[in-house]
Give the backbone structure.
Amino acid sequence: MSSATQPLVKDGAEHLRSVRDGRSVYLNGKLITDVASHPAYRNAVGSAAMLYDHQAKPENIERMTFDLGGGRRVNRAWQLPTCYAEMVERRKALVEWAELTCGFLGRSPDHVASSMSAQYMGAAVFDAHDPRRGKAFREWYEYARANDLFLTYVINNVQGDRSKAFGDQGEGAEDMIARIVDEDSSGITIRGAKLFATSAIMANEIFVGSGQPLKRGEEDLAFSCALPINAKGLKLLSRRSFEEAALSEYDHPLSFRYDENDALVFFDDVKVPWERVFVYRDTDMCRAQLHDTYAHVYQNYQAQIRLSVKLRFLVGLARGVAETIGTVNFPPVREQLGKLASQAALIEGMVLGMEAGGQMVGPHYLPNKHLLYAAQVQSQEMYPQIIQSIRELAGGAMLMLPSSVEDFSHPELSRIIQATQISPAMTGEERVKLLKLTWDAVGTEFASRHLQYEMFYAGGQYVTRGHSYRTYDWDRATGMAQNVTASYRLADFTGKSDQAA
């Protein structure tokens, strides 16, 4: 393909330039001026750039992107499927991206793009709220899509004292939750905090909304909007960087590359122009934006696609551990590996089921709601079980590893390592590499964060089980029992009429 016909596709270099925008990121009491080069974030930012480089390779463009017109192509996360075949095509591209990071970028660019795409499909919900808000959302979405932006979102409020309402938190809590504090002809001003801004440090823009129920009297909290990460007054308070603590890529191959970070966002009197405000002082509309559109389903459908890849990676690690320590042919180990394989296949199969059981909603094809929520219920339970199973399969093998790659530079220590890291399947160095990779997936602080993330990113188990209850076809299920009991009468057995009985 000649340069004259080369389509316009976002690549890694473009993304790296975009995050050098003067954003305000704070870590260990200091302002970080360039996240693309800082040792706490540079590899994660580079991993995001790698995703864009992958989609921009000439041999990948057709699979990973679709044509917006005018020679511009963007990632298939922005695609609005009009049939089952297009949904499958889109999912294959998302799987390919997830495989590049083994599913460890939980908030990769396709996640929030999926949510916003489903809101765009259901933009009539905004129009019913206020046509001006619907117009604002459509125009912003089209801008974000045309530029293939990396979006993140914050839709959770700071916990505070959960036994009390927001207005009863006490003195000094006025700025605990982001709220509207002023407005004029040009827009609204927001002040306060939001959680959890996963990947915000390496994203381009942030969607601000409310995924938690709001009640009357909380209209100041009832808004949604979108802002560039470098908006004046927007501050990201980063959690501890696992990337910065990683000794080397050899010792921490996952946390060294894929620590997407999580941050608290504080809006310090941030001005939002009206063309970026999508919900305005409407408590029910905050719910409708996510649930009356297909946003909640579509974003979590993407999450299950990513998770199916991550589970496949973890199950592969489990098999590798068993081969490394020579237990793979033990019947109990094979039984455990068979169970792990079935768990990974269950989520992958449910993703395929969501698609096959989907439906047309207007001009768009969307996944099956209940199968999505059922998969979330199962995966929340299964992820910690799979981590525990890998720990059991490995036993003490992951604890008796060299302190760091530097041990190999010491001739005497290197000799001892080669003599003691014995494996029937690989060399001593290969054994150390595999077990360090496994430990980074199941045992390090990075791994612990992923355990917590997979268990709670969609809400507590009572939340996902509630979604499953709400979306199940109970009439069809209970109807079978009712059909059975309606097929016979007491009088058939006693000679008495039902009325007399």
